[in-house]
């Protein structure tokens, strides 16, 4: 199992899922995604996947879903799981996809812009973003997440995706109906278009892998069979 976290996060966002998968006998790799943009992150993760022998299930949360699609042609990949995630097609940008449907509350008013000589990064305002990302997790847990967040290159949301995940690969999409970061309507649209088996989690937030790791684990293990 290869678990790819989303923007602003790190591999610890999969902790509840990772521990359950390991308990059930699965080998898990949850690498730190550089968050430097789709092409750059895909290149790095291709190198990571090359070190992992055998069949692989790729799992992506949020921004990580775009990376799953880009990496889907990698040798040994047997299925794909998208968790509250983007499922873009070639030529699309994540920013455009997220603005197609109403419901996302992530915008300039909750985002801090970090400018530096090498580019522009985005970070979430820790005083505002908690209820948007994780309304169903304890506020203290959300505050810890935001205190340790990793900024993402702004270009990640305007950079065009190069690959569409192969139609023949089995796909699963976990859709939290209370998601305020990516609109559930957008997630349903992308999942249907990709031919993914949809699993809706009633009332769950964007951080569904944190609030309901058991449900997410069940879907991943289903994809592994």
UniProtKB/TrEMBL annotation:
Keywords: Hydrolase. Residues 1-216 form the AB hydrolase-1 domain. It comes from the Bacteria. One of its GO terms (molecular function) is hydrolase activity. Pfam families: Abhydrolase_6. InterPro entries: AB_hydrolase_1, AB_hydrolase_fold, Sec-Metab_Biosynth_Hydrolase. This is Alpha/beta hydrolase. It comes from Kribbella capetownensis. The lineage of its organism: Bacteria, Bacillati, Actinomycetota, Actinomycetes, Propionibacteriales.
């Amino acid at each position: 199992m290869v678990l790819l976290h989303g923007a602003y996060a790190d591999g610890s966002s999969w902790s509840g899922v990772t521990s359950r998968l390991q308990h059930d006998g699965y080998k898990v790799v949850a690498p730190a995604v550089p968050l430097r943009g789709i092409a750059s992150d895909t290149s790095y993760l291709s190198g990571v996947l090359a070190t992992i022998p055998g069949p692989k299930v790729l799992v992506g949360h949020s921004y990580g879903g775009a990376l799953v699609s880009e990496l889907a042609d990698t040798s040994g990949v047997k299925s794909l799981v998208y968790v509250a995630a983007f499922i873009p097609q070639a030529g699309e940008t994540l920013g455009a996809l997220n603005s197609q449907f109403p419901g996302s509350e992530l915008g300039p008013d909750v985002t801090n812009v970090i400018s530096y000589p090498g580019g522009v990064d985005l970070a979430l305002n820790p005083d505002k973003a908690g209820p948007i990302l994780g309304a169903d997790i304890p506020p203290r847990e959300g505050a810890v997440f935001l205190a340790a967040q990793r900024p993402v290159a702004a270009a990640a949301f305007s950079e065009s995706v190069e690959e569409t995940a192969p139609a023949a690969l089995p796909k699963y999409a976990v859709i939290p109906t209370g998601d305020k970061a990516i609109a559930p309507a957008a997630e349903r649209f992308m999942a249907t278009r990709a031919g993914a088996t949809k699993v809706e989690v009633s009332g769950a937030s964007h951080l569904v892998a944190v609030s309901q790791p058991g449900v997410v684990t069940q879907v991943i293990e289903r994809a592994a069979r």
